[in-house]
Amino acid sequence: MAENWVLTATAQTPTNIAVIKYWGKRDETLILPVNDSISVTLDPSHLCTTTTVAVSPTFQQDRMWLNGKEVSLSGVRYQNCLREIRGRAGDLEDKEKGIKIEKKDWEKLHVHVSSYNNFPTAAGLASSAAGFACLVFALAKLMNVKEDHSKLSAIARQGSGSACRSLFGGFVKWVMGKEEDGNDSLAVQLVDEKHWDDLVIIIAVVSSRQKETSSTTGMRESVETSLLLKHRAEEIVPKRILQMEEAIKNRDFASFAQLTCADSNQFHAVCLDTSPPIFYMNDTSHRIISCVEKWNRTEGSPQVAYTFDAGPNAVLIARDRKTATQLLQRLLFHFPPKPDTDLNSYVIGDKSILKDAGLEGTKDVEALLPPPEVVNAPAQKYPGDVSYFICTRPGEGPVLLSDESLSLLDPKTGLPK
Predict the structure, then answer these.
(1) Nearest partner of 166 among 200, 142, 197, 135, judged by Cα
(2) pTM of this prediction?
(3) Which of the listed CATH numbers 3.30.230.10, 3.30.70.3270, 2.60.120.10, 3.40.50.1970 matches domain 7-193?
(4) Which of 190, 227, 289, 343 could form a disulfide with 171 if both were Cys (CB 3.0 to 4.6 A apart)?
(5) How many CB atoms lie within 10 A of CB 287?
């Protein structure tokens, strides 16, 4: 057998946004949470990680490139994922390339990994979730691992907790589990992305800078110092999880919105209850909440739900497409682009919502009238406070990309293209 072969696999994995939040670990090493959580998977055509993994007898060490820059794979989280996948690898034969790998050989073979996010890394858009889910999924395909997605999710969890939820599309529940070894702490799909396809999601990217307090540090400090976190995990979340499952199953938007907003606000209250307090939201985040709350109250029933992860970006979930166009008009009225910004780069993702809202350029934005709920108050405008908006929707889980031109590593050398 020629010893200069390179074998690759490329996968695409979505990011997810929790509607019932995960905040706090009961085991730091295995990444076991103090409560269940539920998330919605976002359409990978707008927000995803693409990862190519390669294996070759010519590779001298495990190496990884993230968004084109080489990063170390020596971190314990990467090592845990690699060890778990290698331990489950199966025999593999590629007759076309004359390659035969036995189960025991995988321990000796090094991997190259190249990963690319089509959205800002570490800015509160769950990039680590998509990243670790994609790494585990791609390695499992490359190494002929036969585990199902839930079992794989328990491995991805050891890279980044919320990564386990990115192994499915639609709405996903991360079951906290009871076992000490974490084998029962894994993700299950509640419903697929087609179950509630009326929903439209608009993300306001308030800041794409890296956050001051990482989620890992923030969680540890909350667990150690916040009494509210203890009460939340033991008393509040178990009831909310049941109510949220019911709301999703019945497509009951009023209940869904009420639970989503309340849980986001409580998570940020836990951050404030931490010593020293953690501030993930900023003034723009608060203005967006106020804008949505006013509109929902005026309508008498929720039109839009909001949720914020560990960062200032707003994830806004509209009950249907018509509501989403009205939401986008309101957002662009209050948070217009700076004068020299092209509307097409200010609203990205599913641009058809812009068209439905009758907005073709910045002139149309300038002509927007104040929403009815702010008619009696001075209409506040904050140009430049939002970096850009992403229009998206619930989406599918990970997929293997068979088109070799989409590979991020050269199939001959195993190095980045």
Answers:
(1) 135
(2) 0.95
(3) 3.30.230.10
(4) 190
(5) 18
